[in-house]
Each structure stands twice: as C-alpha cells, then as structure tokens.
Amino acid sequence: MAYENLLINDEDGILVVTINREKALNALNTQTMLELGRFFTEDALQRENVKGVILTGAGEKAFVAGADIKEFLGLDATKGQEMAQRGQDVFFAIERFPKPVIALVNGFALGGGCELSMACHMRIATENARFGQPEVNLGIIPGYGGTQRLIQYIGKSKAIELLLTGDMIKADEALRLGLVNYVLPAEEAMGKAKELIGKTATKGPIAIAKVIESVNAYFQHDEDGFAREVSEFGYTTGTEDFKEGAQAFIEKRPADFKGE
Ligand code: CAA
Fold this sequence. Notes:
- The protein folds into two domains: 6-200, 2-enoyl-CoA Hydratase, Chain A, domain 1, CATH 3.90.226.10; 205-250.
- It has ten helices and ten strands.
- With 260 residues, it is of the alpha/beta class.
- The protein binds acetoacetyl-coenzyme A.
- Acetoacetyl-coenzyme A binds at residues 24-25, 27, 65-70, 87, 108, 110-112, 115, 134-135, 138, 142-144, 146.
C-alpha cells in the first residue's frame, strides 16, 4: 500500500513507521491520520511475521508537534467533534494493536503528538524530547485522548497542571513522572526499542495480545464511578444503621449497628 506521509520499513519483522512531514514538525494533518488508521487497522494486521511496531518522527527536532494547526481554520463545533472522534478511533486502534507498539519520541511530542505517544504501549524518549499538551494556548482542549491518558500515566495532580498550563516537560522529567519508559541518547534509542520488541517476540504471541487486551481493560469505564458513589451514598443514608451511627456520635456512645 502506498503512503504519502508515512515511511514504513520492515526490519526483520519490526515495522518501523516514520511520520514524514519534517518541515511541519511531523504535524498530524488529515492525510497522516487517515494513513495511520489504515496502517494499524489493515496493513499491519494483514502482514505476516510482525513482531511489533516502532513509531517515530522524521528529522531530529520533532516526534510530532501536534495536530496540524493549519487545518484548524475550517473547524466548527460539529467538524471539531468529528475530527476528535476520528482521531480517537485511530489512537484506540494503536492501543489495541495485538503486538507491542513503541513510540520512539525523538523531539517535540506536543498536543496530538504527546497523545499519539501515549496511545503506544511504551515510550522511549531521546534526551532532547519534550512533552506537553499546549492546546489551551489555542483556546481548545486535547481531542485525541490527552485528558484521559495523561492522568493514566502520571496521575491527576501533575496531569491537570500540564493540561491547564500547557507547559512542556523535558525527557528526564517525563521519566521521573512515569510518562516514558526510558530516556536515551538519540543513537541508542532505536536499538533499545528493537531490543524490547525482540524480547516480546520470544514469548507466546497469544499471551502478548492478551496482556495488551487485559491492560487496556483496566481503563475501560463501563461505569461512572462518581455517579455510583452518589447513588450508594444515598442508599446508606436511608438505612437504620446510619441513623444509629449519627445518633451515637451525637450522644458520645458506641454505635449499636443491626445491619439494617
Ligand atoms: N501544525 C502545523 N504546523 C506546525 C505545527 C503544528 N502543530 N507545529 C509546528 N508547525 C510548523 C510551523 O508552522 C513551522 O512551519 P513554517 O516554517 O511553514 O512556518 C514549522 O513547523 C517549524 O515550526 P516553528 O518555526 O514554530 O519551530 P520552533 O522551533 O520555533 O517551535 C514548536 C517549535 C515549539 C514545536 C512550535 O512549532 C509549536 O509550538 N508548535 C505547535 C505545538 C502545538 O500547539 N501543538 C498542539 C496542536 S493542537 C492539537 O494537537 C489538538 C489535539 O489534541 C487533537
């Protein structure tokens, strides 16, 4: 299959995919998103003897500097929602890909670029890598999963700071926060990514796919936990035990709960 913006090299079963828009710092325009979607949902699945995928950006400056802002001027509320949904669908396909997908983050990973790296199963950063979700600078929010996956990796406290300030963090800080697996000099990063995929390729392939599925399942919210809490709190306040507990507190005596 021909790609305009992706370079694909099969290196002994490891598919090295390079987003090839160096002059635009590998920004994700519509065409690139379509190609990433096609690659992960068709091409890569149909190929035989695939051990895994390494995703990186062309040049030495950027992994991906975000969604292509030059395409933004035609957006309105409806088109924006469609764009975010299409993007999330592509990134879910990466997250659900049955072989390991490693982002080799070789420079700026901003906005959609940070989100793309987070959709991959592991991240190896070069020392010059920078991560951030600067969408608020443009008056928008992340649309390709950034508000959700950043929390999954680094926790709410730091995630909300980065999302609200739009600040960038350096590779060593990303490592400290648990956003990346390794930080390495540029010349060592590809070797490490290949080593990791090589190791997984010696394991049971079904087990590898099932580990990926099971880890993903942890984050599937079939239920709204906060809404559940409201409902269960209401239930307990309707019990005899609650009346007894509150009364006992006020009367400064131990509660005599009946389980009713
Ligand atoms: N979209 C389109 N073009 C981009 C781009 C982007 N996200 N990021 C950089 N470029 C282009 C620049 O316009 C410039 O092109 P020209 O030479 O034609 O002007 C070229 O790449 C080089 O960029 P700079 O001259 O800006 O390089 P710099 O070294 O001065 O700065 C940078 C680098 C800090 C990464 C800066 O380019 C930047 O801030 N880029 C935008 C980052 C951003 O806001 N990303 C979020 C996008 S919104 C998003 O992703 C939404 C979502 O979740 C779906």
